[in-house]
Task: inverse folding
């Protein structure tokens, strides 16, 4: 498969993908938090929402409306607070509430457009929210866009299942290094008594990561403040200790790969 050509008005230093074995584990949330954490460190950040049939990135960042376009291509939307540049199918459709009922090749074509037809400008990091699983689109993104590393998101429930293993194995088969695993929804702290509860079973991410030979970034608790911030379009306001850890893992990864070259 050919590499997509990057738009003439884009200069992206590092492309990072976020993947998961299945939907609903918090992949888009982690994508958004990674972008926010890197932007807070002063980097220029863009988010490509390649989760084409379930695009949720624009809503989390509170960006709406249609992307601007010129002869040279489309321009990303920009978030108000941190100036994160965002491209999503939802920002190209007339109505946000319509399902995307396109077939595979058309969907892959949309991702190609996001890379080739969008003038992203100058970016330190582009974070790509991949569709869950190991289907067509994650595969064509990994083959056609120079992804430098992947973050994997799982929940305690699905670590035992084959889906996460498959996602990790796909990355390995495509020669894409895994920056690390984040276990989301690992626990919840009772707001009344402070007790830690494990609604999806005991955290298993750290053990799974070491078994798979990939770094473990950390556990993320269920936090109603996160889903509320996402629903209000205010994910840029969210604070959590894990964010710094994710951003540092990403920066360490790209610095190490620069040294290897
Ligand atoms: P995915 O991209 O894997 O489908 P999302 O990031 O869209 O998952 O998350 C699914 C839903 O769960 C969203 O409503 C999101 O706000 C919520 N969610 C994700 N992670 C957490 C968390 N740690 N605490 C609370 N809600 C969360």
Result:
């Amino acid at each position: 498969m050919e590499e997509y050509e990057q738009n003439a008005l884009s200069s992206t230093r590092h492309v990072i993908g976020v993947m998961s074995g299945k939907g609903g584990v918090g992949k888009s949330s982690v994508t958004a938090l990674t972008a926010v954490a890197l932007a807070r460190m002063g980097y220029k950040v863009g988010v490509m929402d390649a989760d084409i049939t379930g695009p949720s990135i624009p809503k989390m960042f509170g960006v709406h409306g249609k992307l601007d376009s010129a002869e040279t291509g489309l321009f990303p939307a920009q978030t108000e607070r941190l100036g994160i540049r965002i491209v999503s199918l939802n920002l190209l459709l007339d109505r946000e509430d319509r399902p995307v009922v396109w077939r595979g090749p058309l969907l892959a074509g949309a991702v190609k457009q996001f890379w080739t037809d969008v003038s992203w400008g100058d970016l330190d990091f582009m974070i790509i929210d991949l569709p869950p699983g190991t289907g067509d689109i994650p595969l064509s993104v990994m083959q056609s866009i120079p992804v430098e590393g992947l973050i994997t998101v799982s929940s305690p429930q699905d670590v035992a299942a084959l889906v996460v293993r498959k996602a990790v194995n796909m990355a390995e088969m495509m020669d894409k290094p895994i920056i690390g695993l984040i276990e989301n929804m690992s626990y919840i702290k009772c707001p009344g008594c402070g007790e830690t509860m494990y609604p999806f079973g005991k955290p298993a991410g750290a053990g799974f990561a070491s078994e798979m030979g990939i770094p473990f970034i950390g556990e993320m608790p269920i936090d109603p403040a996160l889903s509320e911030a996402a629903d209000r379009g205010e994910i840029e306001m969210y604070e959590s200790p894990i964010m710094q850890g994710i951003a540092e893992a990403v920066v360490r990864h790209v610095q190490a790969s620069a040294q290897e070259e």
Observations:
- The chain has a mean pLDDT of 92.
- Residues 20, 23-29, 56, 184-185, 220, 222-223, 226-227, 230 surround adenosine-5'-diphosphate (CB under 6 Å).
- The first strand starts at residue 10 and ends at 20.
